[in-house]
Amino acid sequence: MLQRARDLAQTAYERLLERELSDAPSHVAVIQDGNRRYAREQGADTTAGYTEGAETTEALLHWCDELAVDEVTLYTFSTENFDRPKEQQEHLFDLIERKLRAFADTDRVHDNEVRIRAIGETERLPERVRDAIDYAESRTACYDRLQLNVALAYGGRAELLGATRDIARAVDDGELDPESVDADTIEGRLYEGPTRDVDLIVRTGGDERTSNFLPWHAKGNEAAVYFCAPYWPEFRKIDFLRAIRTYEHRAESWRRTRARRALTLVRALGPEASQARRILGRFRDALTRQEREAVEDDVDVVAD
C-alpha cells in the first residue's frame, strides 16, 4: 500500500514537472556515472552495474523522444577508462558491442528515426566494437529525427589537441593562412558527430565536475549543468525533468542578461532612437514590466 502511494505521488509529480516545462534543450549530453558504486551497494559484481545502467540509457532515449530533444551525446567510454582492470574493460566492450547492435535493430530506434554515431578515438577500440559501430551507423545512416552520439575512447582535451595539431600541420604545409584560423576552422577538425552546441550536461552519481566532456561544444555555449546524486542505474524520468528545469532557468537567466545589456545599449544610443526601439523590441519579453517602461521612457525622452 505504501509503495503504491509513493508510485502515485511520483507519477503526479512527473506530470506537474512536464506541465511546467516549456522549452526542452536541443542537445543533451550525459555523463552516466555511478554504475560500479551502485553495484557494490547492491552487493553485486561491479559489471552488473553497467548492465543495469544500459537499461537506463534505453529509457533516456524514450524520454528524449517524448520531449522532442534533437540530439543526445552519451559519455560511454573515456580515454581514462583504458586504465581500468582488463576484465572490467572486456565486460564494457562486450556490453557496448551488444548494445550498439541491439539499438541498431530495435523497432524503437527505427520508429523514432534515431541516427547513431560514435565519436572519439575509435581506432583504439577492439575490432569487435569497431564492427558494431559500423553496423549501428550504417543501419541508421538515413535518419535525422534524433541524433545519438556515443562517445567511445573519448577525451575532450585529446579532441582539442588533435584539432590543434591538424591546424599546425596545415599551416606548416602552407595549406592554411594562420590569420584565417577562426572558430569554424577548429570546429571543422573536431571529431565528426555532434551537429549542434550542447545546451545541457547531466551528470549522475554525485560528483560535480564535467570530466573533460565536450569542452568545445558545451563550455563555449555556456551549457547548463545538472549534477544529481542518484547513480546512473537509479536515474529516473523525474530526475531528467528536473535537469531540464535547470536548463530552462539557465536559459531564462541568459536571456535576462542579454536583455539588460540591450537596455544599457539603448540608453547609450542617444539620438539613435529608431535603432534603440528595434534593439529593445528584440529583448522586451525578457525584461520586467518596470524595466520595459523605464527604457521606453528613456527612448521617448531621447526622441523628443
From TrEMBL:
It catalyses: geranylgeranyl diphosphate + 7 isopentenyl diphosphate = tri-trans,hepta-cis-undecaprenyl diphosphate + 7 diphosphate. Coiled coil: none annotated. It comes from Halomicrobium mukohataei (strain ATCC 700874 / DSM 12286 / JCM 9738 / NCIMB 13541) (Haloarcula mukohataei). The keyword Metal-binding applies. Belongs to the UPP synthase family. The gene is uppS. GO terms for molecular function: ditrans,polycis-polyprenyl diphosphate synthase [(2E,6E)-farnesyl diphosphate specific] activity; magnesium ion binding. HAMAP family: ISPT (MF_01139). Transmembrane segments: none annotated. This is Tritrans,polycis-undecaprenyl-diphosphate synthase (geranylgeranyl-diphosphate specific). It is an enzyme of class 2 (transferase). InterPro entries: UPP_synth-like, UPP_synth-like_CS, UPP_synth-like_sf. Binds 2 magnesium ions per subunit. It comes from the Archaea. Catalyzes the sequential condensation of isopentenyl diphosphate (IPP) with geranylgeranyl diphosphate (GGPP) to yield (2Z,6Z,10Z,14Z,18Z,22Z,26Z,30E,34E,38E)-undecaprenyl diphosphate (tritrans,heptacis-UPP). It is probably the precursor of glycosyl carrier lipids. Its cofactor is Mg(2+). GO terms for biological process: polyprenol biosynthetic process. Mg(2+) binds at D33, E222. Substrate binds at G34, N35, R36, R37, S78, T79, E80, F82, R84, R203, R209, T210, S211. Its EC number is 2.5.1.89.
